[in-house]
Specification:
The complex is a heterodimer of chains A (245) and B (79). With 245 residues, chain A is of the alpha/beta class. Chain A contains nine helices and seven strands; from the N terminus they run E-H-E-H-E-H-E-H-E-H-H-E-H-H-H-E. Chain B has one domain: Orthogonal Bundle (Non-ribosomal Peptide Synthetase Peptidyl Carrier Protein, Chain A). Classes of the chains: A alpha/beta (245), B mainly alpha (79).
């Protein structure tokens, strides 16, 4: 599954799933650029990726032109992005009855609009190369829904629809676009849930345990590799059997 | 100065995978040369690179024939 010589961009690579993805792609040989929302975060990513091949950069995915500028800078210095992993995401959970407009907008901006912008920005280079891999991190919640996460579920389901459309648009140019939909993964995001809710969720998982960030990273590495050349527009559900759509 | 018409025709032929002899000034990318919508986007990208200019989307939409591409380049190329 060698990704030797390829430039990979992973958004939201400071912690959790994004960190595991960045490290894994780097171990597979890619030069990985991992983004963080703060300069300190970017420095930490650089330290982590240095021995593997890669570095961190600061990126606020909601800032005007920030994504375009970052990708332009990367392409100037290192060459075209061959692998894009849209991972950056946040939650603003709450029952719909109480959900504020800001909670909705923040999720759409960070989780969905950023996917559109980053995918568009790397497309020119990928079309010229007649090759490219885009892997979008969706969520089991985008497929099955979840009380208290109407905004998050809408954005994640939006990513899945975006992925299918884009896959149809650019398939003729050798570019594949897929989603990985993680189930219940042991990260800071899920650790914030109350214990009772966690226990109830684990009860629905066929494998009877939470997933690890590495489980997601391995699926992403596969979709980013040459071995997944004939897979596009798909959502790979990595959820321990929590949902079998 | 190199012949702009020849350069445009060369790029059109390369991008659309057609023989340069088939590319006439009056040729329409879609109707005569078999381009699809993505091909036309790529063609504009290639023109931008060849002539080191940026073609805004609203202008790009109006470039549908070889002649229109030549005219656009002539009108916008840095003198």
């Amino acid at each position: 599954m060698s990704l030797q010589g390829k430039i990979a961009l992973v958004t939201g690579a400071s912690r959790g799933i994004g960190a595991a993805i960045a490290d894994t792609l780097a171990r597979e040989g890619a030069t990985v650029i991992g983004t963080a929302t703060s300069e300190a975060g970017a420095v930490a990513i650089s330290e982590r990726l240095a021995p593997l091949g890669g570095f961190g950069m600061e990126l606020n995915v909601t800032a005007d032109n920030a994504i375009e500028n970052l990708i332009e800078a990367i392409e100037k210095q290192h060459g075209p992005v061959a692998i894009l992993v849209n991972n950056a995401g946040i939650t603003r959970d709450g029952l719909l009855m109480r959900m504020k407009d800001e909670d909705w907008d923040a999720i759409m901006d960070t989780n969905l609009r950023s996917v559109f912008k980053a995918s568009k920005a790397v497309l020119r280079g990928m079309m010229k190369a007649r090759a490219g891999r885009i892997v979008n991190i969706a969520s089991v919640v985008g497929v099955m829904g979840n009380a208290g996460q109407a905004n998050y579920a809408a954005a994640k389901a939006g990513i899945i629809g975006f992925t299918k459309s884009m896959a149809r648009e650019v398939g003729s140019r050798g570019i594949t676009v897929n989603c990985v939909a993680p189930g219940f993964i042991d990260t800071d995001m899920t650790r914030a849930l109350p214990e009772a809710q966690r226990d109830a969720l684990v009860g629905q998982i066929a494998l009877g345990r939470l997933g690890a960030a590495q489980d997601i990273a391995d699926a992403v590495a596969f979709l980013a590799s040459d071995k997944a050349a004939y897979i596009t527009g798909q959502t790979l559900n990595v959820n321990g059997g929590m949902l079998m759509p | 100065m190199e012949n702009i018409e020849a350069r445009v025709k060369k790029i059109v032929a390369e991008q659309l995978g057609v023989n340069e002899a088939e590319v006439k000034t009056e040729s329409s990318f879609v109707d005569d040369l078999g381009a699809d919508s993505l091909d036309t986007v790529e063609l504009v990208m290639a023109l931008e690179e060849e002539f080191e200019c940026e073609i805004p989307d609203e202008d790009a939409e109006k470039i549908t024939t070889v002649q229109q591409a030549i005219d656009y380049v002539n009108a916008h190329l840095n003198k």
